[in-house]
Amino acid sequence: MASNAAVPFWRAAGMTYITYSNICANLVRNCLKEPYKTEALTREKVHFSISKWTDGKPEKPTLRSDSPEE
Amino acid sequence: MLRRAMGLLARPIAASGARSFSTDLPAAQTADAMFVEAWNKVIPNMDPPKTPLSFMQPRPATPSSIPSKLTVNFVLPYASELATREVDMVIVPATTGQMGVLPGHVATIAELKPGVLSVHEGNETTKYFVSSGFVFIHANSFADIIAVEAAPLNQIDANLVQKGLSEFTQKLSSATTDLEKAEAQIGIDVHSALNSALTG
Asked: Contact A47/A67 with Cβ under 8 angstroms?
């Protein structure tokens, strides 16, 4: 099969679609007017609750929030 | 050993004939008849448990004549903006340009670029700015629009858009690696789309 024609510029620079889409979404969120902006930022926070299990019993869960690594 | 496997694989495919497109398949059944039968044979007193198939609504069949309204599902990760809303037309910002979708549109999958989505119903038009996503148009005049982030135009702050545009234009000129250039270019694209959405 022939290789795909013109790839989008972000794909050519090594970025995946998900990264591109998330960057676009963040930029749009940062351009919202005030009450909506704070709502949007709180809505997009991600929190994990991780509990390790040992001997079939769960230990105390730890909370981690989304680390800003891209 | 491998040759036998090839023979085994080839036979069922040849026997079942050409595979039909997913748009032509009849609506899937809502309960698995064989499973229910087997269950009733073994445990006649209890009701069979519901399988995921029974929770799914069958896809509405493709009508033989073009319906008068387009049914739109516009969903975001945190909310569904429009759920099976009947509208006259939607204009979606596809990467290939603004695409108007009317009832009876050919089945299409399109990727969206940052831009304005407008929903036309009667005399009213509702406009949203969509960050990116996809639109799936089915043969039965159902359109599914999925986006990561969308906002009505009146929630966008023009000053922040201008600031962002100048900031990213500057970043593009000072960018060194390919990745930085791509990020700056994305910033410029999104902010200029926001700008033209607010002014246009």
From this structure: no
Residue B110 and residue B95 in contact, taking contact as beta carbons nearer than 8 Å: yes
Distance between CA atoms of residues B95 and A18, nearest Å: 16
Domains identified in chain B, total number: 2
B164 contacts in A (CB within 8 Å)? 27, 30-31
Q: Are residues B136 and B195 in the same domain?
A: no
Would you tell me which residues 139-158 of chain B have a C-beta closer than 8 angstroms to some C-beta of chain A? 148-149, 151, 155-157
Tens digit of pLDDT at every position of chain A (70 positions):
445 667 888 888 888 898 899 889 888 988 888 888 888 877 777 667 778 888 888 777 777 665 444 3
Question: May I ask the CATH class of domain A9-65?
Answer: mainly alpha
On chain B, the residues whose CB falls within 8 A of the CB of A31 are 156-157, 160-161, 164, 191, 194
Task: Suggest the residue from A16, A17, A31, A44 to mutate for an interface test with chain B (most B CBs closer than 10 A).
Answer: A31
Output the pTM of the full model: 0.70
Task: Return phi, psi of residue A47, to 5°.
Answer: -120, 140
Give domain limits for chain A. 9-65
